[in-house]
Amino acid sequence: MLDLHRTFDKQKKALFFLLALCVLGWFFTPYPTIFSGIGIGAIFGTYNFWILVRRMDKFDRSYRDGKRSVSLGSGLRFASAVAAVAIPISLPNYFNVVSSVIGLMIPYIFLFIEALYSLMKTRK
């Protein structure tokens, strides 16, 4: 479980870097809605990953104690993803829907890259 926390810490750092790039893109390019959509999607995606980390901790504790865990928070993460898309749909002048969906997937892409990096590191 410590690896998941380490990965989440790395993702938070990458999120701040990505948000800085989105702010620069929002100010200095003619596509502010795309960069704001990526930013809001990445924020909700990181929130979803935080929920997953928190629920995995709870699951590990309940498994260690011999209790049953109810869920891993799929409903809450799904509702958060719906909110990440509902905001751009309701405010199309400020956010792009497609870029917010792409931004929602960015933390999972970071997770995949981190897993590949970890795999390559252990093979050496």
TrEMBL record:
UniProt-listed InterPro entries: ATP_synth_I, ATP_synth_I_Bacilli
Record field: transmembrane: 12-28, 34-53, 74-91, 97-119
Keyword annotations of the record: Cell membrane, Membrane, Transmembrane, Transmembrane helix
Membrane topology recorded in Swiss-Prot or TrEMBL: Multi-pass membrane protein
Main localization of the protein described in the UniProt heading: membrane
Compartment annotation: Cell membrane
Any one cellular-component term (Gene Ontology): plasma membrane
PANTHER family, sorted: ATP SYNTHASE PROTEIN I
Protein name as annotated: ATP synthase subunit I
Phylogenetic lineage: Bacteria, Bacillati, Bacillota, Bacilli, Bacillales
